[in-house]
Amino acid sequence: MFIFARMLFSILLTIGIATLLASQTNSVAEYELQIADRLYGFEIARLATDHERLLDFVYPELFTLIPREILRDKMEGTNKVAVLVDRLEAFRLTRIGAPVEADGKTFLQVSYEYVRPATEGTPRFLRTTNDRTDLISRKILAIRTDNELQWYFLEIQHGQEELLSSIIPRAVFR
User: Fold this and answer.
1) In angstroms, how far is CA 131 from the centroid of its own chain?
2) Residue 22 and residue 19: Cα distance in Å, rounded?
3) Rounded to whole angstroms, how far apart are CA atoms 134 and 22?
4) Rounded to the nearest 5°, which phi and psi values hold at 158?
5) Partner of 152 at 20 to 30 A CA spacing, among 38, 51, 81, 108?
6) Could you give all domains of the chain from N- to C-terminal order, each with its CATH number?
7) What is the dihedral of CA 59, 63, 67, 69, to 10 degrees?
8) Is the dihedral of CA 168, 170, 173, 174 positive or negative?
9) pLDDT 10s per residue in the chain (174 long)?
10) HSE-CB for 153 with a 13 A CA cutoff
């Protein structure tokens, strides 16, 4: 009887884990198209140096740490020459991490890459084989609240985890 109960427990545990993994995979697949669409718009706004539009894609809670106007002014000060790109040659998500659910929000670590028309001054290693385009790879955090269908983004540089922990749960950084 003990062996039968143990086998039954093992089978149920396996089914439970498989169900959990399948539901997690479905969630990521469901999010993939939404995130790709928003990220494309985010990158177009970044490359066209449309700072006001770019900030519409940024996780709104960031503005509790640094006001939107100050962030916009800082962006405008760093972009002396606009790239003025209105399209990307190619765009694809390369990896979406497992969702982290916390505080009524979903957090996903996203890696992606895109090919854009080449710009003057781009380092040679970024150039694709035809020399007319640049291949760019990036990582970003995608965030969505449970009551909103819109994804927002936050780029996290190494060493910013402590500062951002007031708006991003520590579990996201693991």
Assistant:
1) 28
2) 5
3) 36
4) -55, 135
5) 81
6) 2-173 (3.10.450)
7) 20
8) negative
9) 556 445 544 554 455 444 444 444 446 778 898 998 999 898 888 888 889 999 999 999 999 999 999 999 888 877 655 555 666 778 888 999 999 999 899 999 999 888 877 766 666 655 565 667 777 888 999 999 888 889 999 988 888 888 899 999 988 887
10) 24
* Lookup: tokens for 137: 């790879």
Task: Classify residue 50 by burial, with Cβ atoms within 10 Å: 0-12, 13-18, 19+.
Answer: middle
Helix (H, G, I), strand (E, B) or coil at 165: coil
Residue pair 42/54 in contact by the 8 Å Cβ criterion: yes
Strand-pair partners of 70: none
**Token reading at 111:** 């890696």
